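Posted in: Protein Modeling Q&A

I'm a second-year student putting together a small comparison for a lab meeting, and my supervisor asked me to include a predicted structure for Putative oxidoreductase. I've never done this before, so apologies if this is the wrong subforum. The sequence is pasted below exactly as I got it from our records. If anyone can share the structure token output, I'd also love a short note on what stands out.
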Amino acid sequence: MRVGESGADRDAVVIGAGLGGLVCAGYLASAGYRVLVVESHDVAGGCGHVFRRRRAYEFDVGVHYLGDCGPDGVLPLVLRGLGIADRVRHRPLDPDGFDRLRLPGLSLDVPASWEGYRARLLAALPGEQAALDEFLTTCREIGGELRTGFLRYDPAAPPARPGPALARWGRRSLADLFEHCGLSVPARAVLAAQSSNYGTPPAATAVPTHAAVLDHYLRGASYPQGGGQSLVAALVEALEAAGGELRTRCAATRVLVDDGRVSGVELSDGSTVRTPLVVSNADYRRTVLDLVGAEHFPAWLTRRTARATMAGGLLSLFVALDTELPGATGANLWWHRTADPDAAYRPHPDPERFRPEALMFSFASGKDAPGANCPPGHTNFQAIAVCPAELPEPPGNGRGYRRDAAYLRLKERWTEAMLDAAEEALGPLRPHLTHLELSTPHTHRRYTGASGGTPYGFSDWGGTGGRPAARTPLPGLHVVGANARYGSGITGAAMSGLACAAELLGRPLAAEIQAGALPAAPPRLPARGPGWDPLAVSRGAARRTARGLARLDPARPAPAPRAAAAATALPARTGPAALSTAPAPHPRPPHE
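Accepted answer (user: helix_wrangler)
Welcome! Here is the predicted structure, written out as tokens:
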């Protein structure tokens, strides 16, 4: 690819300002490419963005915790190559138990080491040492090999031969490995208890997916100081410092193709940008079938893409309380109603009577600095469950669902069911609610355009765990993000962006960063003065000071429980809880 190709407006256009798109764009811009990133939302970040409510609460959409963020970690390496590693500070979660698993009759706190994890499993599951050792050895070997392969990736070198474990288990399911090792049902439930990190049950989860996620977090869990938007803002600063441009509220409506290769992009403002290179961080299915068109791809690829299954969509309940929950520290809580690892993924026969079989709780107020995402003395957390049913396609071209009476009724019932389950796990909450808001797969699809409204991308694209490579059969079109190789999640998306940039530049970027060759020169990053706001930065330079930015106001009196709570509260729940809490509310949930 030639920089400054004659007749082109830009050397590259990146569609979508998620983590994969921003990382790839940053490296291309640093290499001298004239890069434009277009984003349909009013802020960059994709699943890494935040939203604010009542001038008091900031909720992370998808950044609940990060793994492998030590000095030699993968995400710090990606940031270091752009000269912004020192702009993203990581707050370590408890190394003795960053994930707390609570199942009927069994509790386990996951520590930050393979050895510690093994010891906890053996203590919780006596009599299964041989089966657990075989399982853990396989996962550790595969997870380590995948990580090393990324760090050594050289687009000019032939692909490395997989090791024995990866060769044997690379396209087989987690359920197959459970069966091979002879693990009991309780053991399978514990080992798959954190499966909503990738959104598929054991039978639909490739062993490398589970192994990579497990290895990622056992290397140490952390949370970015200032939340996910601080990470996004640093990437935007790197992009703009290198001469790239971010345009928010600007969607790509069509990728243009001439003479069998990419020639430009049509935008929602009616303009056309001529470019020989498009990197799509948009949904893969939408990219192939809608933005480009099936006629420009081999028949096998369009069939595979149309038939592919997606990982599970999520229900996310965003909760704020006017009290601190005792024990709600930075550790995540994984609460399960049963010891059945598949229970949370079975379609509910009557979605209106849904009750969650499992919830993941992320306590943001315990992860960041006091007062960073809620007033002092308050609690900010999320409760996350797999959506119990596939929602019908929303009316109104994807936006009319917010006014659809049937959807609103279902959403309100799901909100109640999620809150009921949260009280089963945590104790009474309702009297202390100051904010309550539920997002569904429709919400996710509206903001990210993701097929199925899932943040996790494909479950099966030509086989369990199969995902497309960055380079597509259409010359000039590459893809990054949740559907691409390296998988979903914040770090997975960032890895896809770096690997795509390495392929386009023909350089082993990860190796160059490790050797200290990148960045070649310190980037001219902007100073961060008083009042620096990562959400404002993430709007892009042209819209940074535009009206409509939600802000936090520490001087504003902290919100009190809603008056509606007293009239609509359900009876307080008592009984065992995973966390002890003070007494507890219920406002009418907003439908946004």
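A couple of things worth pointing out for your meeting: Residues 564-576, 580-592 have pLDDT under 50 and may be disordered. Residues 247 and 542 are 7 Å apart (CA to CA).
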